[in-house]
Amino acid sequence: MESKIFHLDDDPDQIRLVEKYITKEMGLDYKGFGKSSEFKASFKVRKPELVIIDLDLEEGDNEGFEVLKYIRNELNSDANIIIMSRRGAIEDINYGTELGADDYITKPVDFQILKTKIKNLMGEVNELNFPFRKFKNEHVGKMQFNLSLTKIDESYIYFYSDHYILKQSKIIVENEVFHKLFKKERVKLVVHDSSIDESNGKYLWKTTIENVNDEYFQRLSNFILRAGS
Amino acid sequence: MKIKLEEFLKDLTPNYLDERRKEIPDLETLIKSKDFQAIKKKFHKLAGSGGGYGLDELSNLSKEIENHADLQEYDHIEQLFDQYKDYISKVEIEF
After folding, report:
1. Alpha helices in A21-141 (DSSP H)
2. Do B51 and A13 touch (CB under 8 A)?
């Protein structure tokens, strides 16, 4: 039987997890690989319909990009490709899509998202066959909505929102409090958690600046202490 | 602390958590070695896998350790690893 989905990741814990979900929950054929050489050799023979590729592999960081180039440039394959990586920098996402990846998911894996993306790429989402137009080129947009700054502790900055947001999302926030905190009103933050607060039905976003350092923790502590004095 | 997980994780997360508990001495040795590149690599993996198994806090703490390993901030790593051990030892899972 041909494997419909190939997965390349050097972490056996990821392979076990994704294999279980794809085979048992989605009922699809799956094969996992820990080494890119084995993945490439098997790809040529079995021609999977969709592949999931990690970026940092045993053979080296960025090896996933090399595998992507191999699939698109050497094999000229049009298999659907999803990059699934802990790395979520916009540069990685852009480079991956430039090389021909169809989608990008950050780890830890959210299975609802993985399922939707697999079904979408394998043409199983539009059950009623509504017509749609898919854009190959990137069209960047901007989204603005209100967030309510709720608290700051010694590690995190918390907001309430009416909206759920994916972990590792990067956002730019404008708030006058940040002027006191960081000496600027627009700050780039990373969302580490978004969970529903049952007391008010809102999502509580837990954030930090993008690259935390000693100065960041010091600024938060000073800010908290000033409020208490 | 108790966390409720999805049914399909029933025969995965207990083993995963067991492995994490067993590898604590190795992680302690790794951190004491101050090999920041190796620490970063190991916790990069843990950050990527924990949340998939339903253990979000394991991923969050690992990600922070990974970031501090990148900055070679040993004291922060030690503090965070204490929190990591505490979480690993206390977390209880149910389905």
Report:
1. 36-46, 63-69, 90-99, 111-121
2. no
| Residue A205, both tokens | 């976003």
CB distance A147 to A204 below 8 Å: no
CB atoms within 10 A of CB A70: 16
Model ipTM value:
0.91
Between the two ends of chain A, the Cα-to-Cα distance in Å is: 70
- Looking at beta carbons, which residues of chain A come within 8 Å of B12? 16-17, 20
Distance of CA B69 to the CA centre of its chain: 14
Helix B24-32, helix B36-50: angle, nearest 10: 150
In eight-state DSSP terms, residue A22 is I
The CA distance from B12 to B9, in Å, is 5
CA dist., res. A30 & res. A210, Å (int) = 35
Nearest CA in chain A to B71: A213
CA distance between the termini of chain B: 14
Instruction: Give pLDDT tens digits for A124-174.
Output: 655 545 566 777 677 778 888 889 999 999 889 999 998 888 888 889 998
How many residue pairs from chains A and B have C-beta atoms closer than 8 A?
Answer: 57
Residue A13, min C-alpha distance to chain B (Å): 7
How many alpha carbons lie under 13 Å from residue A226 in its C-beta half-sphere?
10
CA distance B80 to chain A (A): 12
Distances (CA, A) of A28 to A70, A93, B20, B94: 25, 26, 29, 27
Query: CA angle, corner A113, sides to B64 and A204, nearest 5?
Result: 50
Give the HSE-up count for residue A87: Cα atoms under 13 Å, Cβ half-sphere: 20
Q: What's the whole-number mean pLDDT along residues A81-98? A: 92
Nearest to A192 among B19, B53, B60 (CB): B60
Closest CA to B9 of A73, A111, A173: A111
> Are A187 and A172 in contact, with CB atoms under 8 Å apart?
yes
Closest chain B C-alpha to A25 CA, distance in angstroms: 8
